[in-house]
Amino acid sequence: MLAIKNEAMIPVNDSVRLLSQITEEMDYKSLYAAYSREGRKAAVEPKIMFKVMVYAYMEQIYSSRKIEKACRRDINFMWLLNGENAPDHSTINRFRKYRIGEAVRGLFVQFVEKLCELGEVKYEDIFLDGTKIEANANRYTFVWKKAVEKNESKMLMKVIGLAEEINRVYTQEFTVVKESINEDMAKMTAFMERRKREEKIEFVSGSVKRKSAIQKLLEALYSYQERQKGYNESNATFEGRNSYSKTDKDATFMRMKDDYMRNGQLKPAYNVQLAIEAEYVVGVGIFSDCNDTDTMKPMVESILSYRAKMAIRRLVADSGYESEENYTYLEGRNIEYYIKPQNYEQQKKRSFEHDIGKRENMAYNAETDEYTCHNNRARELSR
User: Which of 10, 212, 270, 301 is deepest in the core (most CB within 10 A)?
Assistant: First the structure.
């Protein structure tokens, strides 16, 4: 009886009806696979839970407690639940954290394919843009690549000095190089441990007790090995980046947009890229690289991977995506591009037209792909 009343109270052209109709035709195998076949039944059917979450985000409701409240009081949410009990905030959080993560990409692709079938998007004009979103990480837990490299180089010199001392005292021939520093320190540690056992030396502790030479050398080796382990982990975490946050190692420190006081700050953030056509989001990408130039190719590849027959005709982007590599890639894909040049504002100035050092003001020979300067010297330049 309640479902009949809710049905009558919701207008025919309400957005919740369109949402339910579109999502009802989707395949939820990947979502149901996230649930265990053993144990108790899910509090809310996964398909219905997905509808509720999508509609909540459409209404700009993101808090789990506010979504729970809406499911108990809002007629549209009650209609989506189709008679099932309203989920509590814990159920909503578990769904977002543990269930939907692996399946959300496939569901998004299905939605885009549905838009193609309905003729809403045709992949004729793709508009690409991005923004930086601050990560949920402490801004003071930064790790900089240059600092790691500097400290690692300093420690390498200390390890080399330690190897020279061991060679001098015990007439050995240990060598230390950066490429094999872990193995070199392991060899020295094994040697010193063997000498410790042979000489039956007991390690002491405390400020009033004097440490032996072997104990001092071994403690220094263990300390350097631990530090090198941290450097190795940092270098593996960078993955081509210049920084990361200790509390969110996927986040990179990026220059955020100016605040109301026009203060640009470095904060841990992600570079979120969106591809838009006909006001629909047809592509989403989250990158740790703060440079938009390197995100264009993976974004286009991601969109084209939806279907083999899909082909982007034109791509529009701002100057942040301009590079010779991107031009070559788009031309290879037969994609017509409209990218604002980085020096577009400078080109509008009169001083730019009279600058003979700019290649735009030089004579260009298309056959030889060369520019001729005002001194009649030809030179091949990248555009």
Answer: 270
